[in-house]
Design brief:
The structure is a single chain. This protein is an alpha/beta fold. Helix 3 packs antiparallel against helix 6 and helix 4 runs antiparallel to helix 5. The chain has 17 helices and 8 strands. The chain has 3 domains: about 140 residues, no CATH class; about 80 residues, no CATH class; about 190 residues, no CATH class. The strands form 3 sheets. A 4-stranded parallel β-sheet has the order 2-1-3-4. It has a two-stranded antiparallel sheet with strand order 5-6. The protein has a two-stranded parallel sheet with strand order 7-8. Helix 14 links the parallel strand 7 and strand 8. This is Sugar transferase. InterPro entries: Bact_transf (IPR003362).
Amino acid sequence: MIAQNLTLLAERSQAPGNWRVRVLRSFGRMRYQLLGGLLFGVICPILLRNQGLLGVLAPNDVNYQNSLLGTFVALILGFVILRKTTALPGSTAFMNVLPAFVISFGIVIAIFYGFRLNYSRYQFLASFLFMVSWFYFVMMMIARIQRPAFGMVAGGQSNQLPGISSIDVVELKSVADADRLAGLPIVADFRSGLSGDWERYLAEQAVRGRLVFNARHLIESLEGKVELEHLSENSLGQLSLDQIYRPAKRYVDALAAAIVLLVASPFLFAIGVAIRLDSTGPALFRQTRIGFRGEPFTVYKFRSMKVVAPEEENLTGDMTQSGDDRITRLGHILRKLRIDELPQLINVVRGEMSWIGPRPETLRLSRWYEQEIPFYRIRHAVRPGITGWAQVCQGHVTSVDDVREKLQYDLFYVKNFSVWFDVLIVIHTIRVMLTGKGAK
């Protein structure tokens, strides 16, 4: 079996004459992707207009010029978002295509609307549809002939790689096997006591430009979480969060939350009335939780559960179980669509929360976790969020046993804190809201 895999991967990595390899290399190159996006997403809609299929638009028309510039900017912005988010763990280009261009076209249209610039709605719509179709085609072609493959030097954490379903792994028994798969990245656990031959070979291959991965870092990236058992200052770095993005995020979050609260206030009021009519109790649920830098604050949510007497509250009750009978009829809908979290926009405006970050825990749970789980307080290095990496990857925590895994996702977010990671979480959150996956 290993010999067969070695042969297949050797053909994949070293067969320059194979048409599939040539196609993969073409579709995988940035310039070809952009050229196709320009052709199908910008030029084709213009040609269709000039042929009368979408209505004639003269080149000297202001709408024509603005639409041409706008769709070109949307292409570049969407392409950057797609590439940046796809490079992050837990992400696939195919899944990110539609959200990336929804965001880019949304930004461009918002700018046009804000500055009252004329543009053609038909041109923008046709450009969006063609552009998305092109990039879906590109990613579909790449996905058909490409699957991440790695050569594994057995030992230590490398032995966990075969259990990851998203990649192909072949064990390299010797340096000769590695030479046969010269185009294949190599993965090894640098702390597993590699032989002198392997250490020299890996060093030489790295110098020559071959991809050589530390098993711990690769597994962490593929799974999107930091293993608590191997946590150390070296694995987390110095927690030096981006000193430009972190303060900027605070003000962008607050401004966006204030705008949404203002625009959505009639909708939020209607939900509050519906909650009061559906069950006994207040429309808003208030609870003390632990936030940024370990400071307690009052979080706001739409009430989705029956009111519980103070003497009935306990540690287990702070975690919502699957099929929890405390959830009201309307509460099931609010929680499935994540609408119950909307009042937390008040917390975002006040600077207590962010749109994106680790979910804030209750005072009781947080104190218990700090006693039971090492490094738990590290998650407080960033502001808690309405949505987060753990929520889109794991869903709701329903037992104490799930908490350690949730913390692994939270620590990975803290370690990889960046604007592009936040964009990726937004994309995942949209998927969760549309499909209900992860919501309970």
